[in-house]
Amino acid sequence: MTLSISTGVEAAIALLHRNLTPAGVLAASASPQAAKRRYTRIFGRDHAICALGMAVSGDPDLLAGARAGLHSLARRQAANGQIPKYVDPDEREVDFWYVGCIDATLWWLIAVDFLTHRFPSPEWRRTLDEPVRKALQWLHCQEHPRLRLLQQNEASDWADIMPRSGFVLYGNALWYYVKQRYGLPTAEETKFHFTHLFFPFSRDVPDYRRLRLLTSYVLEKGHNDGLFLSFVNFSFWGEEGDVFGNLLAVLLGLADAGPAARILQALEAAQVAVPYPVRSVCRPIGRDNPLWRDYMDRHQQNHPFGYHNGGIWPFIGGFWALALAAQNRKKDAAEALQGMVQACSLGNWEFNEWLDGRSGEPRGMAGQSWNAAMLLLAEYGLRNPVFTPE
To answer: Which residues contact 113 (CB under 8 A, 6 or more apart)?
Structure first.
């Protein structure tokens, strides 16, 4: 049965209300299993992404909750400026992951800017001036001083059991957007090195010898499938096809019209939206791949076409719909949103964390807040620009 988008919006708002606390929105609905796995926490990246959809929902309680969660995370910011991976609702427990959690700080800054400009609250914003300054300073300390790209360790962003390290596509797409939104002077340098490093197959030859060496390894043995590489490190790189990172490159202005069309065409050729939007990678990493790591066996869920390694993540489906809409493919965007609604409705609107990448069977934790929030943001994005300059 085909469900209406309006039915999905209603279900999404209801779920976010269930998951809302005075300190912000939980990553997933409360249950014994969710509590055991720490999903009943306010996650930096999750809440920040949720804040975007909650803000445009038209629901004043959700907008207030979006602000509250960003404030909760700021109160437990590290002395060096890093935003936590998560805090618990009473803010007594704070966690920063094993080797850092770089995208929590990036998404937090994006959400603060989004709410500041679209739903102004001067008093709320003034309380975040110092946390914003510290967060930007912490990120600058992770940046290569010539390439103007962030450097990170393995498993230190949302795909926290994937072997991306060095210069990572996903995080640097967010970093470029943060620089644009906060008026940082090196944004264009970041874009220049981003496009040369993550897509070294053009005829342009970078003038910085360190960058030329990094790209020479890729050019010698790499494969041009039309997508940005998921990461580049010294003599090794990622060709699995990071769907989220490539969609962000399209949405956040790192891929001009020609490259954006090429990226979407490559993702469609890989059928990443089948059976539901969208799979997290085009070509999962198998045990015989040099990039396979022992930690990918963790919880027995990151095998090919599972979890971060090719599972279907409905919340990324929202970014898929937004990317299509941003390229004026409104009909395709509406169909993508419809597919996302279907995915979230499985199990009587369980809003499952992820689905099997081949069968579409629900997996992971139920009641995921960012699935609901991204459904709201994608529905809004069919009619309004989301990530474009205002």
So the answer is: 178, 181, 182
